[in-house]
Amino acid sequence: MKKLLLLFTVLLTITSSVLAQNEWTYNTNSEASGWDSTALMEFNNYIIDSTKVTGLIIIHNGQILFEYGDIEENSYIASCRKSVLAMLYGKYVENGTIDLNKTIEQIGIDDVEGILPVEQKATIKDLISARSGVYHPEGYAGGMQEFAPKRGSVEPGKYWLYSNWDFNVAGYVFEQETQKNIYDEVEKQLAIPLGMQDWNRLLQVKEGDTTKSKYLAYPMWFSTRDMARIGLLMINKGKWNGQQIISENWVDEMIMQRTTYQEINNNVPVFKNTGVNFGYGYMWWLFEDMNDERFNNAYAALGAMGQAIAIYPEVNVVVAYKTKAAYNRINSGQVRLNLLKKAIELYNP
């Protein structure tokens, strides 16, 4: 009888742990937590009237404070994939499997049009910080190569440019050096430990035009609430339910400034006069020079059309939103940035 009771207790503990991972709790008193309920209603109307967003969620102190649209539907998260890849890198950088100081020449990177001698000096670290100086054509659209300097004119590490060639090669390098599949690692390192409710491994398929570059992109499909789990993991410095999923040191490394907002605004002036200044870490965007304490140390994963996971440590808030590509719904760049500002400006403790 005692053995049966013990077994029942163990099973109950396991079940409770699983539920704790999978179930969200809701903030039922936004006013007491510093959120104006009228302003939240106005924000909801703004999303409906002025955006193409299909799902949005605000998390405060680990609880759902606000949700809009379908937060369970899986869809394409565009360049947010790059920030997820950065998270996967940590384990293998820290155990020595990936050496960020290796050059692309040392690890055998070549491509359709070849790699110039100066480009061969680029390191893995340069790739994941968008500072490779390699302006080879991308096999998967989404970079900003229209702003690129003349090919071969820049020393690796000396110039920032958001290029999908860098990011796609970073995915290839991850798989080559670890002998692991990116999607399997998302499942193993993130989806299972975080209890993602909507993760579907079958949706994850690599894409790219191999006539332009042999390095494929690794598109990812998540639900909005599973994107929010990524944000919660990051805001908690890699810890989930008492378990260190990603080391705190690696979280700090990812969001350490590698490029200033001044350099980004100079090299790729699309962010000038938008009300948001971004620096850059390891495939994460960093809010800088915002003149608002709520944005102190904030950072985000950003994707085309309207995908974001934004983390605001100063106020313990995560905002995740996305726009389903299949609906041909596209938010302008300014609207995407407005959402990140408006959501956090609702909070006045």
Structural notes for this entry:
This protein has 349 residues and is of the alpha+beta class. The protein has one domain: DD-peptidase/beta-lactamase superfamily (Beta-lactamase), CATH 3.40.710.10. The protein is 34% helix and 13% strand. It contains ten helices and eleven strands. The strands form three sheets. A seven-stranded antiparallel beta sheet has the order 2-1-11-10-9-8-7, with helices on both faces. A hairpin with a 2-residue loop joins β1 (55-60) and β2. The longest helix is centred in the N-terminal third of the chain and has 21 residues, at 2-22. The protein is globular, with a radius of gyration of 21 Å. InterPro entries: Beta-lactam-related, Beta-lactam/transpept-like, Diverse_Enzym_Activities.
